[in-house]
Design a protein that fits this description.
CATH architecture of the largest domain: 3-Layer(bba) Sandwich
CATH superfamily of the largest domain: FAD/NAD(P)-binding domain
Structural class: alpha/beta
Keywords: FAD, Flavoprotein, Oxidoreductase, Pyridine nucleotide biosynthesis
Catalytic activity: L-aspartate + O2 = iminosuccinate + H2O2
Largest sheet: 8 strands, mixed
Number of helices: 19
Cofactor: FAD
Pathway: Cofactor biosynthesis; NAD(+) biosynthesis; iminoaspartate from L-aspartate (oxidase route): step 1/1
Family: Belongs to the FAD-dependent oxidoreductase 2 family. NadB subfamily.
């Protein structure tokens, strides 16, 4: 059953398409969370402190605790389809790689990545990493900027931890070989972006994520304790029940190149799989960002939080405004970094009227949610497709030095940003919600940690401050290391436990026939486009209850149509294929966003409701989605594998 903890003392429950009323939950419950409107939302108290105490004996079935002096296992492959590691890391962005490098000092690590190792949201991050590195700046100032941008829904303890530990995480990256821009004085060049009161953005021109990914990936590939499995799509987490606790034992994956299911059994699993930008038709995220981690975690009984807060970056390149049109549509929108506005870029409508001062006194330096809504309002009022971002009044050499990647991309299509304004439009960019995590990346699923965009740590609140995402990923990847290694040392692997879970079956021509597979792939592509259009039209930058309920209905109908077709053509619960598995994850994440949005009856940060246009202090609490019932859920919300707890004991 999924419960949406929305506002006040009465909460909404969502079960099989109907909404029920219930009483507030208790923090002391092992699988529920309480929302208290009279207190700051605390992400590290209550259930997470209880979980830390319970971890001592959490692997009593199949994978059992042993002494603290136990040695890490060598990477074992009993068969080509089952592999055993101390740690499994799902995702190869900054969070996954940084964590892998640390835990590899204690044991063997499998890094599972859906595409090439560098193909992650990290690689596309342009702006930089925010950290207090200037004597004129302070942790308190960075905290205040984060809280204001997050519409005061951020967890203050989390914010303090991240802002305090950030500078040391930057120094570690530099020590590992990451190269950032320096000023004429020889010190790090610190840029300023929207929502920041000081210059605190460490960057490598406008390709910061690429440089960080390069340095981390180089170190990972040179580490003998780390094995990288590229082109492995994570299907579902392997879990069992230990009393009331859900325990994670690893993950099933699909080797996309060989069409083989590969099972990874591990003592600890880190989920660092990124976001879900492709639930929308236009996103700055790479194609791999289909919400796989959030959907897997939800199916594995993890608690999900704040999914209504989808950040639309105000300034993605509007291709239709370029002088030379693209031959084929982009797979993902090209980002125009926040730093362009931070460097003095000005936003105009097509009538060359500057409009941001009409909406916010901070003008172009307002937080992203404000700027995105302002652009959206201009486009609707003027019936235009894009606005213009102009940096051409700045010296040419500085523009080219600070934004070489943007300048190069625009010039390919006939636009010189040193002389002409850039056509821009908002695009889905970042999920502020995700798998609810404590201060060490722990979740309510024992043995499962999360870091990066897939996690909801409480840092971002209702809207992420620019360049806080890479920072959060670095800090939480590092904080998850100690509890992970402690758990690994007191846990042993039961090799024979692997066969206790039903194995997924790959959809092949032999199983379904060439014609059926072709029809399923074609329908899946069509349904994916339809889902994205529904999300953009009804669950976009500006929302209403009517639009959200319409989206909920349309998504349910679309999902039912798709699943009915699959199962009428020989598909079964355990059958897998890349396109179908991505589609089930997109459906799952879309429903999580819509359900969360319907539960919040106010406008806060990224969530703007025309029928609830104001911020309500009593509603300054996180939105919570509790695990769904596997018996009533659709295929997108059910795990593929089945397991009985008794079968694990028998092994």
């Amino acid at each position: 059953m999924a419960a949406h903890v929305s506002t006040g003392n009465i909460h909404n429950f969502y079960l099989a398409g109907q909404v029920y009323r219930g009483q507030a939950f208790s923090w002391s419950s092992a699988s529920t969370f309480m929302a208290n409107p009279f207190k700051e939302p605390s992400w590290s108290s209550g259930v997470f402190k209880a979980l830390k105490a319970e971890r001592c004996g959490c692997y009593s079935r199949g994978i059992s605790p042993i002494s603290e002096t136990s040695k890490p296992i060598r990477a074992v492959s009993v068969s080509s389809s089952t592999k055993y590691y101390d740690f499994t890391v799902i995702g190869s962005g900054v969070a996954g790689l940084r964590y892998a490098l640390e835990v590899a000092k204690q044991g063997t690590v499998a890094v599972i990545t859906k595409d090439e190792p560098h193909e992650s949201n990290t690689n596309y991050a342009q702006g930089g990493v925010s950290a207090v590195l200037c004597p004129l700046d302070s942790v308190e100032s960075h905290m205040r900027d984060t809280m204001v941008a997050g519409a005061h829904l951020c967890d203050e303890e989390t914010v303090r931890v991240v802002c305090t530990e950030g500078p040391e995480r930057i120094r570690e990256l530099i020590a590992m070989g990451a190269s950032f821009d320096h000023g004429e004085d020889g010190n790090l060049h610190l840029a300023r972006e929207g929502g920041h009161s000081h210059c605190r953005i460490v960057h490598a021109a406008d390709m910061t994520g690429r440089e960080i990914e390069r340095a981390l990936l180089e170190a990972v590939l040179n580490d003998p304790n780390i094995s990288v499995f590229k082109h492995h799509f994570a299907i579902d987490l392997l879990t069992s029940q230990d009393g009331l606790n859900t325990v994670c034992h690893g993950v099933d994956t699909l080797n996309i190149k060989t069409n083989e299911v590969v099972r990874f059994i591990s003592k600890v699993t880190l989920l660092a799989s990124g976001g879900a930008g492709h639930i929308y038709p236009s996103t700055t995220n790479p194609l791999v960002a289909t919400g796989d981690g959030m959907a897997m975690a939800h199916r594995a009984q993890a608690v999900i939080s704040n999914m209504e807060f989808v950040q639309f970056h105000p300034t993605a390149l509007a291709d239709e405004g370029l002088p030379i049109k693209l031959q084929t549509a982009r797979e993902n929108a090209f980002l125009i970094t926040e730093a362009v506005r931070g460097d003095g870029g000005i936003l105009y409508n097509l009538g060359m009227e500057r409009f941001m001062p009409l909406y916010d006194e901070r003008a172009e330096l307002a937080p992203r949610d404000v700027v995105a809504r302002s652009i959206d309002d201009q486009l609707k009022k003027r019936n235009e497709k894009y606005v213009l971002l102009d940096i051409s009044h700045k010296p040419r050499e500085k523009i080219l030095a600070h934004f070489p990647n943007i300048a190069s991309e625009c010039l390919k299509h006939g636009l010189d940003i040193t002389r002409q304004p850039i056509p821009v439009v908002p695009a889905a960019h970042y999920m502020c919600g995700g798998v609810r995590a404590g201060l060490q990346g722990e979740t309510n699923v024992l043995g499962l940690f999360v870091a990066g965009e897939v996690a909801c740590t409480g840092l971002h609140g209702a809207n992420r401050l620019a360049s806080n995402s890479l920072l959060e990923a670095l800090v939480f990847a590092r904080r998850a290391v100690q509890p992970s290694t402690e758990l690994m040392k007191r846990t042993r692997l039961d090799v024979c436990a692997s066969e206790k879970w039903t194995r997924p079956v790959v959809a092949t021509a032999r199983l379904l026939g060439d014609e059926v597979i072709a029809k399923i792939i074609a329908l899946t592509k069509e349904v994916r486009r339809e889902l994205q259009e529904v999300m953009w039209k009804y669950v976009g930058i500006v929302r209403s209850t009517i639009r959200l309920t319409t989206a909920e209905r349309k998504i349910a109908e679309l999902e039912a149509k798709w699943e009915t077709f699959l199962f009428e053509h020989g598909w079964e619960q355990t059958v897998v294929a890349l396109e179908a598995c991505e589609m089930r994850n997109l459906f799952c994440c879309a429903k999580l966003v819509v359900s969360s949005a319907l539960a919040r009856h106010e406008s806060r940060g990224l969530h703007y409701m025309t029928d609830f246009p104001f911020v309500e202090e009593s509603k300054r609490i996180p939105t919570i989605i509790l695990p769904s019932s596997p018996t009533t859920a659709s295929w997108s919300s059910r795990r593929l594998q089945n397991i009985s707890s008794s079968s694990l004991i028998d092994c």
